[in-house]
Amino acid sequence: MLALVSVMFGSTSAVAIAEGSGTQVAKMNHEVVMYKSPACECCSGWAEHMRKDGFSVTVNKRDDMDVIKAKYGITDKLASCHTAIVNGYVIEGHVPAADVERLLKERPANVIGLTAPGMPMKSPGMQSVGQPPQDYDVLAFDKDGTTTVFHRY
């Protein structure tokens, strides 16, 4: 399938034909802005996982992750190693791309983000490439930090 893609460059735009599924082309519009410690490699693995699923990822290496987490309402109970913003949602830690896609599609009321608290060993970026996530929960959270299970692996 072919799709028309419009890209903005400052005050000008370019139009291109992209081959692929409509879902893949739509995800190209989802910019992931990730904040991570300069030394953390598992975060780089998560960024690569998101790219392989069609997301555009910008990585910002920061020594002040506590400031970033406070800015986006990430409490100790929600925290992981990196914090990302996708279309206004906060994505904390090793949340699989499929869960981010579902969040963006469903846009549940009162949810401000998803988290995989801690660093689950069988999550994207923490496991061997290509292995499915297992043995942890992805939680949805609201502005007060109240959580519900979004996906159980």
What do these coordinates show?
There is one protein chain. The protein has 153 residues and is an alpha+beta fold. It has one domain: Glutaredoxin (3-Layer(aba) Sandwich). It contains 4 helices and 9 strands; from the N terminus they run E-E-H-E-H-E-H-E-E-H-E-E-E. The strands form 2 sheets. It has a 7-stranded mixed sheet, sandwiched between helices. Strands 1-2 form a two-stranded antiparallel sheet. Helix 2 links the parallel strand 3 and strand 4. The longest helix has 12 residues. The N terminus is likely disordered.
Task: Please provide a brief summary of the model.
This protein is of the alpha+beta class and 153 residues long.
Using DSSP, what is the number of strands?
Answer: 9
Protein structure class: alpha+beta
The helicity comes to 10-25%
How large a portion of the residues is in β-strands, by DSSP E?
A: 25-35%
What CATH first level would be assigned?
Answer: Alpha Beta
| C-alpha-based Rg, rounded | 16 Å
Look at the structure and give the mean pLDDT. 85
N- to C-terminal separation? 32 Å
Our count of helices gives: 4
CATH topology: Glutaredoxin
How is the main sheet built?
7 strands, mixed
Count of domain modules:
1
CATH architecture: 3-Layer(aba) Sandwich
* CATH homologous superfamily caption: Glutaredoxin
Instruction: Spell out the helices and strands N to C.
Output: EEHEHEHEEHEEE
Which stretches of 5+ consecutive residues score pLDDT under 50? 1-25
Strand order of the largest sheet: 4-3-5-6-7-8-9
Tell me the overall shape: globular
